[in-house]
Amino acid sequence: MKRTILITGGAGFIGSHVVRLFVKKYPDYLILNLDKLTYAGNLENLRDIEDRKNYRFIKGDILDTELLLRIFSEYQVSGVIHLAAESHVDRSLHNPDEFAVTNIIGTIRLLKAALTAWHNNFEGKLFYHISTDEVYGSAEEGFFTEETPLDPRSPYSASKASSDHFVRAFNNSYHMPTVISRCSNNYGPYQFPEKLIPLVINNIIHRKPLPVYGKGENIRDWLHVEDHAKAIDAVFHKAKPGSVYNIGGNNELKNIDLVKMLCRIMDKKLSRPEGESAKLITFVKDRPGHDLRYAINPSKIISETGWRPEIEFSQGLESTVDWYLTHAEWLAHVTSGEYLKYYEKMYANR
Ligand code: NAD
Ligand code: DAU
Questions:
Q1: Is there an atom of ligand 1 within 6 Å of 182 CB?
Q2: In 76-195, which ranges are continuous DSSP H helix?
Q3: Tens digit of pLDDT for each residue in 139-148?
Q4: Which of 151, 158, 172, 327 has the largest count of CB atoms under 10 Å?
Q5: What domains lie within the chain, and their CATH numbers?
Q6: pTM listed for this prediction
């Protein structure tokens, strides 16, 4: 094998698309997927590639230094793509300490393990940290650029911003080659149905209320997860060490408009009368501290790497709906048990 890349959080939503892309596109790379398999991690997301010769799954925690050091030394890891995290804003409001442990301490442990294993020999090495546009706060006007000051406003984004700072600190203090990218909202297959798009699809299937926070006027900037995975590939192979890249598709939508679009698509797909799903829309108490708008300026990644989003939003949304409708078993599996209890508790007070 030409090189070994350690991908953390590879059994989650975005991680599984990144693992799939790298395993298929780079048969001469060994791809290690380190994942703790929390409620959000699921090996069913990777069934189609799990038997490939250049892929290994390791069940484990990024907080486990001994395990990390063993992996680095046994496999001669030369690149890290770090996606493992607690990723849901609503959960972070109930459990901020869990977010600090995984997202901050977990990232520091991974950085320290890479530093120890690489012994100041950084030739051909890269630590790539996957961050989020939420670290910039709320874009009341204009667009987030890589120079926008960090202004995290939820426990989730505070933990991600903190981990970004540690990554930069390892670059500055120890000269470790690092890269950070900050992407906007992703959608597509295998997204856990606590996030807006799959939650709405799942609730329409089961004729459950569609909870829209506040007045539904908050704006998110949506990008298909396969476009994000390709952007990660471009950044991993072309970025200058020490740099930051924003990733987005210039695709802003108000939540309420997005939910109505999904209702229209679902009525057609399920052969229900037009307007039936929209009757399920329920305005609920707003998310505390809800950021009004995220909007990414992706011109740096486009001009420096040549990456561009390829999936047009309305087509991507329709194919995502098709994916969920044809993966009823996956949906039933991930929404059973613990998640069902969490969901019922979460929405009981709204
Ligand atoms: P996800 O919640 O679907 O997956 C996270 C994965 O990390 C899961 O497989 C989970 O088991 C694993 N994990 C959690 N704690 C771990 C630990 N201690 N050790 C090892 N594995 C652990 O998340 P996602 O939506 O795929 O997001 C992936 C990354 O991308 C995160 O860092 C997130 O902040 C970032 N991001 C997400 C979005 C988005 O729209 N979803 C946008 C921008 C950035
Ligand atoms: O911007 C990137 C971020 O996007 C990532 O860093 C996060 O990991 C990811 O979870 C996502 O965060 P959001 O909070 O924007 O995503 P979520 O799907 O939770 O919510 C999208 C919008 O929809 C947000 O304005 C809140 C609203 N919403 C969400 C849910 C779950 C509702 O109105 N109702 C809901 O039930």
A1: no
A2: 89-94, 96-99, 106-118, 155-174
A3: 989 999 999 9
A4: 158
A5: 3-184+225-247 (3.40.50.720)
A6: 0.97
